[in-house]
Known about the structure:
Layout: E1 4-9, H1 18-26, E2 31-33, E3 44-45, E4 54-59, E5 64-69
Parallel strand pairs: 1-4
Antiparallel strand pairs: 1-2, 2-3, 4-5
Amino acid sequence: MAKQLRVVPAYGRDYTSLDSAKEDWAANKDFLIRNSSDPEDGRVVNRQDFPDGEVILRYDMLRKQAVLQDAKKKKP
């Protein structure tokens, strides 16, 4: 079963649009793992660190969320 990762922007960043959040995830910017049931809650992670699974990215002051698929996993 693939892992599901919930992340929020790190270092005080925030995004008002999904496109800008996706761009930063694709550019390997840092995000924080936010899942109280995950032992790695609070750890900094980026796309390069996450091998597989889906990413749930919270943005716009944590009011919105989007499910991202890892671009490395996509097949033509």
